[in-house]
From TrEMBL:
Keyword set includes Oxidoreductase: yes
Signal sequence bounds: none
Keywords: Oxidoreductase
Pfam family, one: Pyr_redox_3
Organism: Novosphingobium jiangmenense
Official protein name in the record: NAD(P)/FAD-dependent oxidoreductase
Oxidoreductase among keywords: yes
InterPro entries: Auxin_biosynth/cation_transpt (IPR050982), FAD/NAD-bd_sf (IPR036188), NTF2-like_dom_sf (IPR032710)
Amino acid sequence: MTDVTGWLASLDAALLAGDGDAVANLFNPAGLWRDFLAFDWTLATYEGSADIAAFVAARAAAVMPRNWTTEAASGASEGFIAFETATGPCKGYVRLADGKAVSLFTMLADIAGHEFPVGKRRTSGVVEDPDGRNWQDLLADERAAMGTAEQPYVLVVGAGQAGLAIGAALRLLGVPHLLIDKHPRVGDQWRSRYKSLTLHDPVWYDHMPFLPFPEHWPIYTPKDKMGDWLELYAQAMELNVWTRTELLSARHDEATGKWTARVRRDGREIELAPAHLVMALGNAGFARVPMFEGQDSFTGQQYHSSEHPGGEGLAGKRVVVVGANNSAHDICADLVAHGAHPVMIQRSSTHIVRQSTMTDMMLKPVYSQEALEAGITTERADLIAQSVPIRLQEIGSRQAWDAIRKLEAPFYERLEQAGFKLDFAEDGAGIAGKYLRSASGYYIDVGASEMIADGRIALRSGKEIARIVPDGVVLEDGEHLPADVIVYATGFGAMEEWVSRLIGEDVATRVGRCWGYGSGFKGDPGPWEGELRNMWKPTAQRGLWFMGGNLAQVRFYCRLLGLQLKARFEGIVAS
């Protein structure tokens, strides 16, 4: 049976011959090749023999792949790989079954001559300036000039985790950049959220790029601690950030290849002229607040969940929370902790995954202290996770959730007995499917589910609101719910809404949907694309990019987006 070493030798020979059919024959008929910039300047997955053969025919000659090596032991059927191309060193991972590839992942790691200055390539720190300036002087001069005397090559809109991650990659790659954010301080996106919030994912999964959390960091990060870390991160990574700055509009000139970006900074309007615009405003659009008859008559407070300050001061108050996803559950639990009386209105089914399940069953093999001590660093864990094409992720998720539902049946039965409507995604793919398809429809349980099961959080499930009255909510079955406060935990629109508002409806239409991969399930219409739409890769609008996702995603993909922007800055790829 062919092992990884033998398979790579056959792949090398077929690529040197430029024989696409021979390469395709090294994969099983349903094999997948996921390529991130190694063979082409985009992120794509090629599925099946015909697609793989065509990909090789189109790209192999120009790329000149060579020097294939592997860490896999003799006889191993999967493992890390490395190779070189005309562009630079690459990494990857291959999985074999019966001597043929089930999946191959290839990824550009660096651009030759323009590598990330980390590890052995770090700079000396010694400053030799003809004007006698030291490091602090040079940094201060750069920050004073950026956006005024000097234009950024890349303007990043948003300085949350996504914006800071791509900013860090651009800084290390020497690409002139400017981040803008409407908040007074970096990190305020987190500080401004409700008081009890903590990250739902564990520390091993949630590092920022290039500067991981220290070893004493708590497993689940409190939101203010996260905000302070992001502020520290911006300083440590020496990023050019304008706070109290908002993008008002942006227009692209195809003739010059530049944007005219109009921003308001501390009340003053300024025009910037970057070559590239990165939208790093999260993976959602604007807050969705449903309209109901009588809404204006309500005499109490009502607001979207994004404006919820916390449960302080609400002791004894009756609060109706419309929605049943992450924010709704967190807010209800917070209200209970502060002595309020929440009622959750669940209008459609929700997927629930316990935090312990996420940490101990789904993440532990690669993102845990045990994995780290076994030699699986964050970088290696990220590569393993991203080496699985989405088609295979779907299959693996369905298999995992078949087992989890049986193992945790008593937990789900208690929820259902309380009237809670559960789902596990339409095809059983659970949270992974829900997140990648629409980033909605789920709750990572950190305690609210038990409150629903034991009645501390009252539940009205499968019922719509008929109207709102001065003192509360009337449901479609006529039930009247008295309320002092109504919280609409009803989610957000899609991130392309920002394009429509800030750049233009024509550009939003041309770019199309962001996020989702064409699964055909709820919130993610087909056709199948196999990678997240428009994320971290070229879009239909020249010079427009999207950067978003959870901490693990922005950590991994900021390097890839950084390499694409660096290649354009250096003229390696046409802008």
